[in-house]
Amino acid sequence: MELNIVDLSRLQFAITALYHFLFVPLTLGLSVLIAIMETVYVMTGRTIWRQMTKFWGTLFGINFVLGVATGIVMEFQFGMNWSYYSHYVGDIFGAPLAIEGLMAFFLEATFVGLFFFGWDKLSRLGHLAATWAVAIGSNFSALWILIANGWMQNPVGSAFNPQTMRMEVTDFFAVLTNPVAQAKFVHTVSAGYVTASVFVLGVSAWYLLKDRHRDLAKRSMTVAASFGLASALSVVVLGDESGYLEGEHQKMKLAAIEAMWETEPAPASFTAFGFPDQEARKTHYAVHIPWVMGIIATRSLTTEIPGIVELVEHAEERIRQGIIAYDALQDIRAAGSTAAIPDEAREAFEENGGNLGYALLLKPYVDDPREATDAQIAQAANDTVPNVPTLFWTFRIMVGLGFSFIALMGVFFYLSARHRLDRYPFLLRLAVIAIPLPWIAAECGWIVAEFGRQPWIIEGILPTAAAVSNLGASTVLMTIIGFSAIYTVLFIVEMTLMLRAIRKGPEPDDEPEAAFGPRAFVPAE
Amino acid sequence: MILHTLIDYETLRVIWWLLLGVLLIGFAVTDGFDLGTGALLPFVAKTDTERRVVINAVGPVWEGNQVWLILGGGAIFAAWPPLYAVSFSGFYLAMFAILFALILRPVAFKYRSKRENPTWRATWDWALFIGGFVPSLIFGVAVGNVLQGVPFRLENDLRIFYEGTTLFELLNPFALLCGLLSVSMLVMHGASWLMVKTSGPIAERARAFGSIAAVATIVLFALGGLWLWAGIDGYRITSAIVTDGPSNPLAKTVEQAGGAWFANYAAHPWMMAAPAFGFLGAALALILFRARREVTTLLSSALSVLGIISTVGVSMFPFILPSSIAPGASLTVWDASSSHLTLFIMLVVTGIFVPLIVAYTSWVYKVLWGKVDEEEIREGKGHAY
Q1: Strand A270-277 vs strand A282-289: parallel, antiparallel, or unpaired?
Q2: How far is it, in rounded angstroms, from Cα A62 to Cα A60?
Q3: Candidates B64, B346, B354; nearest CB to A110
Q4: Separation in Å, CA of B265 to nearest CA in chain A
Q5: Which residue among A241, A305, A518, B4 is the one 20 to 30 A from A313 at the CA level?
Q6: Interchain pair A114, B367: CB under 8 A
């Protein structure tokens, strides 16, 4: 197999993003759980809650640092491997990334130092404020990253400028309030909360099984189960498929997830099981559940969801209009000054410019899209179908796991309310086994959202293949090997330290129950 | 949205050029001492306790400091997209080396003292050294290459082609000199931070290294200036300059010319304040190192960092990334920015948040003020590294 620069660049991005996303969900959720625990400490003055804060804080720190280290790679890679993308959409996409730094990451990274180093230097309320700053910072961080990502999925509030050959922002408010970004934010943040809750629940369950730190474990489980139940409900109910009707390719993604080849009358049925066959455009051994898909995707009984075949036909039309736009763009570029642009070119571009990106889908087949044959156009239209079996299965794994988290959290919430957390070793073992599952769900979610976005890097605007930097394949192969090597080593180191810290357990906290201090707020018990 | 026309495009571009400088200087002044401290670690601290003192001297603040770099990256992406696209892809392997070092650094800080094993700790100490030394060197080497021009060209659709062949061509003599200047400047800065945060033998060693680094900074900065004057052609725009046109780098013509990097000083003599600060700060730092002063040494060395980085910006203005193989495609302040609207929005956001960041960062520094206590570290008090 010949190594191609587009595939290699995608592979590197996928490896580094999936790896980065091993640490992000736990950071998002655990920061909030820790802040809740410390709030209880400050309100009650009971040292067990401080001990819990410090213990989970140690595990948080081991995880957080790798999130930071791998996050820098994400920010730099757009420019390194996707330079045409960076030029083409930097005017819009760069802004939320920069604002993330200004508003969120600075807050989080500055106060995380105080969280670890400030116990003896700050009043109790002061330290609590630092902890909340970390939690709020990391959650705001997710907001801005997902505004950037949401724009890639549904590029609102922007227009192509022929003079600068790039997309430029026209309505920043629309970029901020992009419905796809909002759906993604709620879904992703909830997923992070579930991840942290399952983690805290599982580690605590292990302590109960070992008959260690019972007090700390039970309290932690109570917090994790209540917070986790709410989050697990939210992650499923507010799944980000609510954003899937916003754009043409979001619809394609939905159809691919469902392996829905032909448009069905509303409300569409849900294929619970089957083997999608991309070549034959058929799903073998399909088991359908009537109505469910229509309700999940559209929240209505009457909205029709288009099937893959119909969407490919749309794509073909748009490619043809894109060719007209491409032709007009060449005339506009050749004109030199704005005044010299021929009227026909201006009108043709105004009418078809929205489909310019579709013409670029032809680039892998022909240098000048205007010379494309009908067969090439049909082929490019067919390329707009993402890999159906992958999407079909990753989506089902994610959803199945999502429901299992509701069950897990529900059970432990009930046990906690009835003070029976340590009664059933079988359930405790289940909680331990469940620890890795949220990560599997989260990575599947990433694959559905981003692999499902292909062949577009920005839906309808720029194909992934056109966005890549002109680097040598061997150069990128070398950095893939480099990143994989260091990431593997750090993963092993991280897991070793995490397991050691868990096995070691919390530090004894023998300082007296907090007394009333001049700067501390402690209600009487 | 019409609000953004309150500030014209030309002014916004100049403001964003200044802000780019502010962010890079913010990074070099804050995270710069973390990098310098990392590079000094194996030399100023011999025993394990000493090393922990040095690590804890930057431990609580390096994470926040590093955000200046991340913010710098984000701001270049948002305000200067062509600069971000050309430089990050052009310097691909150099960027990879920086990333590699910057991945090691946070992990080394956090994980080093989690185990007692001496081999474990020694390994992470070297990781901290690499994490400090390598980025310091590469940042300087990159600037050295930018001053000479970078081999890239742009096609009509503004697709970027970088025609450099190997990583080693980046390591040319002038660029290496700039790399060494960057290392000595940040080592001087790191040493002055250690003067503030430590005492006893560590502070004494830091003082010795800091003095050497201050001398090296002065010598290398002077040599670099002479070399630039005598041996390196600058760039100048030869077509009419349009300061508020669309960001299309291909709309102008540029030529290489000897002494072009000094033209701004002739036209605006006050700009000589930048190199003057570079020299003055380092000379003051040297004197104050000798006099065993602490905070004033740190401030002087910060002044030197500010002066040296500003010198590069002022010398090149309006160029930000000249092209050696297609000078007309060079990126300048007038044709490599974001749109008028984006620059305005980002200015508003920056105007709100940078003062907030400065305020809470100062508060955190104040809370953490004072020397690192060896006793506390031995007793393992607090969550020290």
Answers
A1: antiparallel
A2: 6
A3: B64
A4: 32
A5: A241
A6: yes
Mean pLDDT of A150-177: 93
* pLDDT for position B185: 97
CB-CB: which of B76, B103, B341 is closest to A69? Answer: B103
Contacts A80 to B, Cβ<8 Å: 88-89, 92, 95-96
Which residue in B has a C-alpha nearest to residue A466's C-alpha?
Answer: B159
| A512 pLDDT more than 70 | no
b or e along A330-347 (b: 16 or more beta carbons within 10 Å of the residue's beta carbon)? ebbbeeeeeeebeeebbe
- Give the model's pLDDT for residue B295: 94
Token pair 């670690």 is at which residue? Answer: B41
DSSP notation for B250-307: GGS-EEEEETGGGHHHHH-GGGGHHHHHHHHHHHHHHHHHHTT-SHHHHHHHHHHHHH
Q: Residue A359 and residue B141: Cα distance in Å, rounded?
A: 41
Task: Give chain B's residues under pLDDT 50.
Answer: none
pLDDT tens, B317-343? 999 999 999 999 999 999 999 999 999
In chain A, what are the domain boundaries?
24-160+171-246+385-504
Question: Across A248-365, where does the E strand assignment appear?
Answer: 270-277, 282-289
Tens-place pLDDT, residues A233-258 = 998 877 756 556 666 678 888 888 88
- Residue A258's Cα: distance from chain center in Å? 20
- A36: tokens are 């809740």
DSSP B150: B
Q: What is the mean pLDDT of residues A447-466?
A: 92
CA distance B249 to chain A (A): 9
Structure tokens at A146: 């997902």
A205 CA: distance to closest CA in chain B (Å): 25
Residues facing A507 on adjacent strands: none
Indicate the pTM of the whole model.
0.91
Nearest CA in chain A to B156: A333
CA distance A442 to A444: 5
